[in-house]
Design brief:
With 190 residues, the protein is an alpha+beta fold. It is built from four helices and eleven strands, in the order αααββββββββαβββ. Helix content is 20%, strand content 28%. It starts with 10 loop residues before the first helix and ends with a strand.
Length: 190
């Protein structure tokens, strides 16, 4: 007997669709919703593309958050971070999508996070702002003087160590724009 395709789709996708429709942004996502329904959701699309859209490089439930805990925010942005030539590259696909907020004369829309393991504990902290469209920062800015929170206030990256990077909507100093984040991308410091 024929089983309607929509019965096989995870209820969470319909909740997301409802949320997006209520925000009146449904027209732009109709092709995505159709694909999700046809292919059985993001998991099936991930299999087709070879990508894992919801994968974090570490267990966010075990992280000690030095800024706002954003682990429950949906990971709507895809990030594949890298460090080279004195630059931290954080190319994420929402750089021109998340709304900007005026701060210090610039329009900023994201904070960059670093996840550092010390004495067996992972700490997550923001260390910089990103302007609308910006996807890189100087590697020298990845430091305790930018994190400004214990126990990472004197942190300096060490060559050969692995760190996690993430981008989220604004959380530093009370600013906010959107409750979304990227996946955590693990990088070995050069």
């Amino acid at each position: 007997m024929y089983e309607p395709v929509f019965k096989r789709v995870n209820l969470d996708y319909f909740k997301l669709l409802k949320e997006i429709c209520c925000m009146r942004k449904f027209i732009a996502i109709l092709p995505l919703v159709a694909s999700m329904i046809m292919f059985g959701g993001c998991e099936e699309l991930d299999k087709l593309t070879g990508e894992d859209s919801a994968s974090d490089g570490l267990d966010l439930g075990s992280v000690v958050w030095l800024d706002q805990n954003v682990s429950e925010w949906p990971a709507t942005a895809s990030l594949n971070a890298s460090v080279s030539g004195g630059t931290v590259h954080v190319p994420y696909d929402k750089a021109n999508v998340w709304p900007g907020v005026s701060a210090g004369g610039a329009s900023v829309n994201a904070n960059v996070w670093i996840f550092v393991q010390q004495d067996g504990t992972w700490y997550g902290a923001t260390w910089e702002w990103l302007r609308v469209g910006q996807t890189s920062k100087s590697a020298s800015s990845v430091s305790g003087s930018h994190i400004k929170k214990a126990p990472l206030e004197s942190f300096q990256p060490v060559s050969g160590e692995t760190y996690g990077f993430m981008v989220s909507g604004l959380v530093r100093i009370g600013a906010s724009n959107i409750d979304e984040r990227s996946n955590v991308s693990m990088v070995t410091w050069p």
